[in-house]
Amino acid sequence: MNQQHKEFRDSVKKIYQALVLVFGAVSLVACFLVYGMIDPGFSAFRQDNSVVDYAVVDEDENWDKIENGIHLRTGLKEGIGLMETVNNCTNCHSAKLVTQNRMDAARWAATIDWMQETQNLWDLGGNEEIIINYLVTNYPVKKKGRRLSLENIEWYDLEN
């Protein structure tokens, strides 16, 4: 009985080891498949020695160049307070976000206060008034409404 008991324990131990090995292999394959769904190119396993050339700036090139009244880098209109606006607003978001939100001075001041309270915007100091004046002057509130009525249209009658 003792010999049978030992043989039985050895066979259970071998089955247990085989099950652990199979479970480990299945877990490894499952992890590989999940990672394959997340990153199909398996980019983490490739060594990329390529050099990315983001922007080559000539020493003569001016990042703050203005042509036809437009600041080329941001698309903002030229005016008093342009550089203060560029330096303080485009650090966190694009200039497009600034220009699409046309507001009056009070709303800009409230928006700046909100950004300072909730978005970690720094104290603008004396630049706040300059920026608000720039925005109100160059991007004033637009009256929104329906499109203009159609004019000079030759209408025709529909026949049944």
Features:
mainly alpha, Cytochrome Bc1 Complex, Chain D, domain 2, 2 domains, two-stranded antiparallel ribbon, elongated
Q: State the secondary-structure class.
A: mainly alpha
Q: What's the CATH C level of the largest domain?
A: Mainly Alpha
Gap from first CA to last CA: 101 Å
Shape: elongated
Please work out how many helical segments DSSP would assign.
Answer: 5
Number of DSSP-assigned strands: 2
Mean pLDDT: 85
What features would you describe in this structure?
It is a single chain. With 160 residues, the chain is mainly α. It folds into two domains: 2-42; 66-138, Orthogonal Bundle (Cytochrome Bc1 Complex, Chain D, domain 2). Helix content is 48%, strand content 2%. The protein is built from five helices and two strands. The protein has helices at 2-38, 82-89, 95-100, 105-118, 127-138; strands at 66-67, 70-71. The chain has a two-stranded antiparallel ribbon. A hairpin with a 2-residue loop joins strand 1 (66-67) and strand 2 (70-71). Helix 4 (105-118) packs across helix 5 (127-138). The radius of gyration is 33 Å and the shape is elongated. The model has no long low-confidence stretch (mean pLDDT 85).
Topology of this protein?
Blueprint lengths: L1 H37 L27 E2 L2 E2 L10 H8 L5 H6 L4 H14 L8 H12 L22
Antiparallel strand pairs: 1-2
Helix pairs in contact: 4-5
In short:
The protein is built from five helices and two strands, in the order H-E-E-H-H-H-H. The protein has 160 residues and is mainly alpha-helical.
